[in-house]
Structures are given as C-alpha cells and as structure tokens.
Amino acid sequence: MNAIETFLSAKTFAVAGASARQHKYGNKVFRALLASGRETYPLNPVTEEIEGHRAYPRIADLPVVPESLSIITPPEVTRRVVAEAIEAGVKHLWMQPGAEDDEASESARNAGLTVIDDGACVLVLLARA
C-alpha cells in the first residue's frame, strides 16, 4: 500500500486548520473527508464548531487519537501541529499544498510517521475515489 492509500485507509481522521468558512480549503477538506464516510474531527484553536461538529484547539483535546491528520496551516504552524501529532501518536500526516515544512517533515519521518508532503491534494484524490 502506498502512502496515500495508507493515509486514506485509516479509521479516524483530523483536519488541522479546519475552517468554519466554506470557501476556505480547510473547510473543503473537512467536508470531503466527512462526505466520504470517514470519522473526522476538526482542529481549530479559535473556532468552537465547524459544519455542526465540535472543533478542538489541539490534537491532545480530541476524544480519540486520529490515525491520519490532514494539515492545512501555514508552515510555521505546521511545525507545532506536527510536534503535537508525534507526541499524541498520530501515524499518518498529509501536508496539503502550502502547509509543507521541511523541518516538520523530517521530524515526522524520524519519528516513524507516514508523511505525504509532495504537493498532492487530498481533495483531488477523494474526488477520484
């Protein structure tokens, strides 16, 4: 199984950078994962609810540790999110286009996580499924 198949085969997901604003990429990714029938949690430190789902400020605040984490944050935030993901025990990361950070990728790989950071877009892949 390749990294994308591994990411998408997880039982639980979270979206770091999920947004309540429907035109934002973080909202589109969150809705796409939900629409595909996946158990998905939104992560946003300043929003309480996204698409009718409680939003959580940090990975440690989630009711479960997500197996897969989609990251849609600025690179400087990505570093913090990845450090939290490693500490929490997340297994798979997908840095969406624009969220990539070399330092975060290296840290995640060194910790044994599956990392997708090559510019691939989860929305494109879900649209094909």
From TrEMBL:
<feature type="domain" description="CoA-binding">
    <location>
        <begin position="7"/>
        <end position="99"/>
    </location>
</feature>
<dbReference type="InterPro" id="IPR003781">
    <property type="entry name" value="CoA-bd"/>
</dbReference>
<dbReference type="Pfam" id="PF13380">
    <property type="entry name" value="CoA_binding_2"/>
</dbReference>
<protein>
    <submittedName>
        <fullName>CoA-binding protein</fullName>
    </submittedName>
</protein>
<dbReference type="InterPro" id="IPR036291">
    <property type="entry name" value="NAD(P)-bd_dom_sf"/>
</dbReference>
